[in-house]
Amino acid sequence: MIPETPAKILDKFIKTLQEQGKSNFTIIAYKKDLEQFIGFLTKKEIEDVREVKKTHIEEFINELINNNYTKKSASRKLNSIRTFFKFLKNEGIITYNPALDVAHPKQKINPPRILSKLEYMALRDYAKKDTRTYAMVELILQTGLKIGELANIHLDDIKENTLIIKKYGTTPEREIPLTEPAKKAIEEYLKVRPQTKDTHLFVTRKGTPLLIRNIRQIISRCFDDVGIENATVNDLRNTFIAHQLSNGASIEYVAQIVGHKRLSSTERFLSHVKPAVDKKTRIFEL
Questions:
Q1: Torsion 275-277-279-282 (CA) sign
Q2: Where are the alpha helices (H) located in the chain, listed in sequence order?
Q3: Which fold has domain 117-272?
Q4: Do 76 and 200 meet the contact criterion of CB atoms below 8 Å apart?
Q5: Burial of residue 26, with CB atoms counted within 10 A of its CB: 0-12 exposed, 13-18 middle, 19 or more buried
Q6: What is the structure's pLDDT at 3?
Q7: Per-residue CA distances from 236 to 113, 145, 151 (Å)
């Protein structure tokens, strides 16, 4: 029987993902996760994917956690392995997916960090020192964008009263209403935005796109300088969601605006806010 080497099958799996039209972001994530798993199999001298058992996958996941990977990261890698072995089964290379018998590491679900009014007002005041920084902070607070979506906004995505958010990862394309503070922040930034052929909204002083890591560094520095502790950029998104629900926006509407595929992702905020009685379909300014 000719060995079905993991590396050889991985190349075929990646090619299939490309043919299915998966995003580069998704493909790179799968490739990194599976290369790491294949490296583990190599150490175990397993040269045929048909030899992989449940115990091997469990050992790999446990090794990740022992090496200080978060349970969330280990769980994501297990999902990658499950998808890979599902592909092997569909190809007729294996008859059963051993990864299905491996349980996800139990994760402690921390409550969402929601900025107080005092915190987000202080952050805004500090961010006003730089028009670009203020526009980024204001956009997330007023729309609930993910940091990757913020980095991917192009000039033609901005309409008079709405913002077009293109598909990002598993989050679908959608339209988001722009509040007056958000529109004003964008307008003020565009007055000083460097002249460049690049069409991204947020660019560096040299006119190149501002990357996700750049945005995270800029806003994280603001948190540090203002003295807001244990906060991340995503907490601005959390604050938007909590504010909308507490002012009476319906769960369904908020989920649609922020791109949640499951209502449960939005509902988890209800235990941390006191929602208004009315269930409205409008965005409330912060």
A1: negative
A2: 6-19, 24-43, 54-66, 71-90, 117-127, 131-143, 147-151, 180-192, 212-226, 234-246, 251-258, 263-267
A3: hpI Integrase; Chain A (1.10.443)
A4: no
A5: middle
A6: 53
A7: 9, 9, 15
Read off the tokens for 226. 């203002």
The 3-state DSSP class for residue 75 equals: helix
| Mean pLDDT value across the chain | 91
101: its two tokens: 């018998």
Residue-wise pLDDT for 28-50, tens only, equals: 999 999 999 999 999 999 988 88
Residue 132 banded pLDDT, cuts 50, 70, 90: very high
**Alpha helices, DSSP H, located in 67-210:** 71-90, 117-127, 131-143, 147-151, 180-192
| Cα separation values, 197 from 149, 150, 164, 206, Å | 20, 19, 20, 11
State the burial class of residue 27 (Cβ atoms within 10 Å of its Cβ: 0-12, 13-18, 19+): middle
Amino acid identity of residue 59, one-letter, is E
- pLDDT class of 271 with cuts at 50, 70, 90: confident
Flag whether the pTM goes above 0.70. Answer: no
**Which pair of tokens denotes residue 64?**
């990740």
- Give the three-state DSSP class for 120: helix
Residue 247's φ and ψ, nearest 5 degrees, are -100, 0
For the chain, which residues make up each domain, given as ranges? 6-101, 117-272
> For 69-73, 238-242, 275-279, which range has the lowest pLDDT when averaged over its residues?
275-279
Of 3.30.1380.10, 1.10.10.10, 3.90.1150.10, 1.10.150.130, which CATH number belongs to 6-101?
Answer: 1.10.150.130
